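ok so i was messing around last nite and threw this chain in just to see what happens. nothing serious, just curious
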Amino acid sequence: MACWLALRFGATQADWEVVRELRLPRVILAMGVGMGLAVAGAVLQVLFSNPLCEPYILGISSGSALGVVIGLSLGVSWNWGGLVGTSFLGALSFAVVLSGVTHRGSRSGSGKTHSALLLVGVTLGFFGNSLLALWMAIVEPNQLQSAMAWFFGDLSRARLSGAVFSMVAISAVSLLIFTQSGQLDAFLLGDEEASAIGVDVGRLQKILIALTSILVGLCVSGAGVIGFVGLLVPHGVRRWVGAGHRDLLPLCALWGATVLVFADFASRWFAQPYELPVGVVTALVGSPVLIWTLLRRSQEAN
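result:
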């Protein structure tokens, strides 16, 4: 349904040329990016034992975007995922910092590890965004508009070859994560319990951080910074099927793709004849949900 709406309706009248050259690549890219962000959010939530984790809130998306900017400054091309490498390194560096905070907090026995994680994530996000703003301040004026659109999530640059590349790559990485479903379930018991049943916790954490960083790098290099998909989708799916990752991850991939395709349709339809960045649409929905979740957790804690 979401794919049909996105292909059928938009800011311009639909004909085969428009569908093939503009809308079909956007739908494919939106499906891939939505899938990647939802799977990444589900993994981060179990990896850091915090249901509020997702790439945008933790600043990993900002680190990935910073990697893209560095790649552009070095002359790396957009074509065929040329910026995925630098985007991945940016995401990985921020994820490693977050992992270090979690590991240090767990070793010290601090009960405030979750709060510290979110605080460090928000700080990293501000740091990354500040550097991105600095880059936009010195970029050529004719590039500023496209840079701003990409910063808030932009699917308008989608081309069929690049969209298919992103979809295939994100699907492959998501499949690799799915093969770790059983060990991800062990994480739900806690690090000590997972180790007791034979899970190499340190090795698995490194693998998952690397795979999640690749996912975020692919998503950000292809579509810019899009928030809250990795928060909303895993929460909704987990309420439906529970916490078991053998069911959770495939449904997160499916619903993540559906949600972002629908958000892209909404960004083009409701602002006609103009177009909203798709990240604005997801933030308009995701921000109130995050606030509601925080308030509910605060009430439960009291």
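not much to say yet. DSSP finds 13 helices and no strands in the chain.
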